[in-house]
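Lecture 7 notes: from sequence to structure.

We start with a single chain of 114 residues. Read the sequence below before looking at the structure.
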Amino acid sequence: MGSLFGRKAARNCSQLLFSRSFSSQLFVSRLSFYTTEEELGKAFSPFGKVIEARLVQDFKAKRHKGFGFVTFESEIDAQKALKAMNNRFFRGRLIFVEVANPIPEEETTLDKGE
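Now the structure, written as tokens:
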């Protein structure tokens, strides 16, 4: 009986860790330079409510850098979109989709001279 409880507890622990590590924001790379933020949002909208679709801009080249972020209202919708859109063709290019890494806290706070 103790080993059954141990396996169940380990499974619950791994599910908890996965759910905490998953984000509702996805990183999308290898995008066509002709892709717009509106098109990116529409492409991911069948999987759930898209809060934001943002392309990272290269201001010197006056176009986006070929990657961006899609933020969903829920983590479950983001998981569905990740599974469906990763390694798929979009606007003639094979795109990659992965969970966006959060910015470390020390990079988001201002240096207060401490």
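Residues 1-20 have pLDDT under 50 and may be disordered. Keep this in mind for problem set 3.
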